[in-house]
Amino acid sequence: MNMKRNTSNEREHWGGSLGFIFAAAGSAIGLGNIWKFPYITGMNGGGVFILVYLFCIFLIGLPIMICEIAIGRHTQKNPLGAFLQLDKNNRLSRSFGTVFLLIGLGFFCFGKYGLGGVFSLIAVIVYYFGWGFVGLGGIFTGFLILAFYGTVGGWVTAYIFKGLFQQLNFETVEEASQVFNNFVASPTSVLPYQIVFMLLCAFVVWFGIKNGIELASKLLLPFLFILLIILILRGITLDGANKGIEFLVSPDFSKLTPEGVLVALGHAFFSLSLGMGCILTYGSYLDPSKNILSSSLNIVFLDTMVALMAGFAIFPAVFAMGMSPDAGPGLALQIMPLTFNSIGDHLGWLWSSLFFLLLSIAAWTSGISLLEVLVTSLIDEFKFSRHQAVMFSTVITTALGVLATVCCTDWSRLPWLEKALVALFGSTNNSMFDLLDNISCNYLLPLGGLGTSIFVGWIWGTHHAIAEIRRGSHQTVDVNFFTLLAGLKDDPNSQEKTHTMTLATVWGIFIRFITPICVIIAFLHAIGWLHFD
Ligand code: PHE
Fold it and tell me: Which of 409, 488, 505, 519 has the fewest C-beta atoms lying within 10 Å of its C-beta?
């Protein structure tokens, strides 16, 4: 019998490393892998894009993931609490506050009251919270992402039923896009499914870490793999599938554009759930005896494998049926049902429903992780009970998500909101949905990742972070990088100091220099300040 009791304020922990890896992989594997990754691969040249994406994942994503888990496990807190606890250098963050205030005043002087207001608000928050600002920003980003993620979650859930009821048996691309466009433009059709999706997320988070998130991930992830394998087998056994496989595995370097490189980098953040405190939160439930380095490698590996598998589930079928690989965001929701229907085995409805079930499960485990960030923050910082926190977070994110659904393609249902945004900021995105997607993915996630790497590299300090990472993995982090490459793993405990270039050293150099510089370049490109042509 387990004699260790949970007192009410002791933080719950994962049942083991495997529970943590499943849950974090469940967060990472989402719409980003199965819906977005295949279409951006299709639009950016196939194999060569995949190669660049793999570089971004391992060179930038992996080091930041290690940072987030280390911060979370060291502090055992939510993102805001974690950054507040580790921030000892208030003077530096105050000076950042002054910079933001000056930028804000500058915008006011040029009549840009919206941006002036935003920067002044940031200045106040930075003065007040110091580096806690990065954690608070992460929680806010999670709130925005979950809102529009709920909308897409609603679409894919609805499409399971549309498939089952034979409503996706399309004959032409026009027909497929008309059905999709009519569906997303009609809130009364989307909202019930969106609410069901949000309630499913809330249901799992309600039961906490071990009996909720860990259990759900352990059940759902294997199921997701089985579905993917079934769909891959269906795709690659079609006549003409080899053209799709070729498209994925033979990189054509003439198709590599600077634009594509940066799309790959931005997507690496979104896909690994980095830059907003999600992995940090999951890391805060990790036991000190567990190996952070090997867990991170496993999570990154699983996430990447699913993205690649999704490519193999989609492109062979798309090519075999003579469809175009560069259809853009509609690839999953329009081209896939059409592709399945044209296979001609009269089972198109079944393949479509299975495909959307796969998407819904992937979205579900990611939605759960986004909700948990809000829930844990309310529990830690405002002393909510878990159930109160789940109810409150679900209601507010669903409310914002309803706006995303109501204004999904344009602002015609809330013209006053568009007018207000244009009056404040000079312009706005095409719809509330695009606005949420744009602010969170192009701005907040890269900035959150940048803040995290600068914080760990220069404020908390890589030596402190490494001390945390070493707990449970010292045999791994102190191995010499070059001897490891040569396959001659040395003894990390040896007295001779021959292992200066250890894995820890490599990670430290990345986190202080390489990662922040790459993120800044990607960010400046994303906001249009840097062009490569
Ligand atoms: N990683 C998820 C996906 O690939 C999205 C996500 C982003 C989830 C940020 C949590 C936090 O779809």
Answer: 488
Residue among 271, 373, 437, 445 to mutate when testing ligand 1 (max atoms within 8 A of CB): 271
Asked: is 17-89+131-474+500-526 a CATH 1.10.4160 domain? The reply is yes
Contacts of 94 (CB under 8 A, 6+ apart): 126, 127, 130
DSSP assignment of 112-158 equals: -HHHHHHHHHHHHHHHHHTTHHHHHHHHHHHHHHHHHHHHHHHHHHH
Give me ligand 1 centre to Cα 188, in Å.
Answer: 26
Task: State whether the beta carbon of 270 lies less than 6 angstroms from ligand 1.
Answer: yes
pLDDT given for residue 323 in this prediction: 83
> In degrees, to the nearest 5, what angle opens at C-alpha 49 toward C-alphas 228 and 357?
20
Report the pLDDT value the prediction gives residue 532, as an integer from 0 to 100: 65
Task: State mean pLDDT over 506-523.
Answer: 90
Model confidence pLDDT, tens digit, residues 227-238: 999 999 988 998
Mutate to test the pocket of ligand 1, among 31, 53, 273 (most ligand atoms within 8 A of CB): 273
Segment holding 433, helix H or strand E: helix 432-437
Which pLDDT does position 5 carry in this prediction? 40
pLDDT for 472 equals 84
Tokens of 474: 């010292």
Q: How does DSSP classify residue 409?
A: S
Residue 389: per-residue pLDDT: 98
Helices (H) and strands (E) in the chain, counts: 28, 0
Which ligand 1 atom minimizes the distance to the CA of 35?
12
pLDDT of 494 over the 70 cut: no
Domain ranges of the chain: 17-89+131-474+500-526
Q: What is the pLDDT averaged over residues 322-326?
A: 85
CA of 221 from ligand 1 middle (Å) equals: 15
